[in-house]
Amino acid sequence: MLSYQHAYHAGNAADLHKHAALAALLDYLVQKPKPLTYIETHAGRGLYRLDAPEAVRTGEAAAAAPRYARLPPRHPLAGVIAGARSRHGPAAYPGSPLIALALLRDGDTAHLAELHPQEHAALVAATAGLGAHVTREDGWAAARRLTPPAPRRGLMLVDPAYELAEDYAAMPDRIGTVARKWPVGHILLWYPLLSDGRHGPMLRALAAAHPGAARHEVRFPPARPGHGMTGSGLFLINPPWVWPEIAADLAALFPPEP
Ligand SMILES: C[S@@+](CC[C@H](N)C(=O)[O-])C[C@H]1O[C@@H](n2cnc3c(N)ncnc32)[C@H](O)[C@@H]1O
C-alpha cells in the first residue's frame, strides 16, 4: 500500500490552483439546465482540518493562506470553503469531492474512487447523505468502468499522488483511453511542476495527443528548502469557451513573487 496522505498537503498552494479551477469549471457547467456526471479517480478523504497535526507539521496550508485570502468573494471556491467552515468549524478545508458535491445539483451524478482504506472510510463519512457513489477502487479501473457515463455531459478530475515513476510514464495512455471512450468529457488532470523536470515528457506526450487541450501552470516557492515541487499544473481536455476567463482568475491568485 502506498503511503501518500493528502492531510499533509490539504489547503496548500497546489490545492488552491486545482480547487479554484475545479470550482469555477463546475460553476460554469451547472449553469446549463442539462444534468451532468462528475467522476473523480483519486478522491482523497473529502474533508480536512488545517489544525490537524499533519497540516501543522508541514505548514503548507499556513504558507498558502495569504493566497486563499486573494480569492474574490464572488469566486465559487470562496463560497464552498465558507459553507464547509460553517458546517464543520473554522479549521475545516473541503477536498475536491466536497467542493464538487457542493456545486452539483440534485439531478447530477457523482462517482468518487479512492483506493486507500482509511482515506476511503473517511470519504464515505464525509460524503454521507450527499448522494455520491463512493467506491474503494483503483482510480484507473473506475475511469474505464465509468466511461462513457450517463449523463454524458460532465467532468473528470484526475489527481493522483504521483508516488511511482509509472504514474508519469503511463499517464498519456491512461488519459488517452478515457478521452477516446468519453470524447465529450472535460478531463482535468493535475500535475506537479518539478525542479528535475520529471513531468516534462508526460506533458509533451499529452500535448501532442490532445492539441486542443488547455494547460495552465503557476509557480510558487518550494514548501521546504530542497523540496522538488516548484509549482502546480493543470491539463484540461475539452476546455469550455469560458476557460480563458477562469485561467485569468487563477493567475491572479499567483502574482509573481517580489
Ligand atoms: C492528491 S490525493 C487526492 C486529493 C483530492 N483529489 C483533493 O483534491 O481533495 C491522491 C489520493 O489518491 C489516493 N490513491 C493512491 N493510489 C490510488 C489509486 N490507484 N486509485 C485511487 N486512489 C488512489 C491516495 O490515497 C490519495 O488519497
Explain how this protein is built.
The chain is an alpha/beta fold and 258 residues long. The strands form 2 sheets. Strands 5-4-1-6-7-9-8 form a 7-stranded mixed β-sheet, sandwiched between helices. A two-stranded antiparallel ribbon has the order 2-3. β4, α6 and β5 form a beta-alpha-beta unit. The chain has a single domain, classed as Rossmann fold. The protein has 11 helices and 9 strands. Bound molecules: S-adenosylmethionine (SAM). The site of S-adenosylmethionine (SAM) has 18 residues, from loops.
Averaging pLDDT over every residue, what do you get? 96
How would you name the CATH homologous superfamily? Vaccinia Virus protein VP39
> Briefly, what CATH class?
Alpha Beta
What overall form do the CA principal axes indicate? globular
What is the CA–CA distance across the termini?
Answer: 41 Å
What's the architecture, going by CATH? 3-Layer(aba) Sandwich
Counted beta strands: 9
Strand content: 15-25%
Distinct small molecules = S-adenosylmethionine
Q: Domains counted in the coordinates: how many?
A: 1
Structural class from helices and strands? alpha/beta
Within the CATH hierarchy, at the fold level, what is the topology? Rossmann fold
Which series of helices and strands comes N to C?
A: HEEHHHEHEHEHEHHEHEEH
- Can you list the strand order of the major beta sheet? 5-4-1-6-7-9-8
Ranges where pLDDT stays below 50 over 5 or more residues in a row are none
Fraction of residues in helix: 40-55%
Main sheet specs: 7 strands, mixed
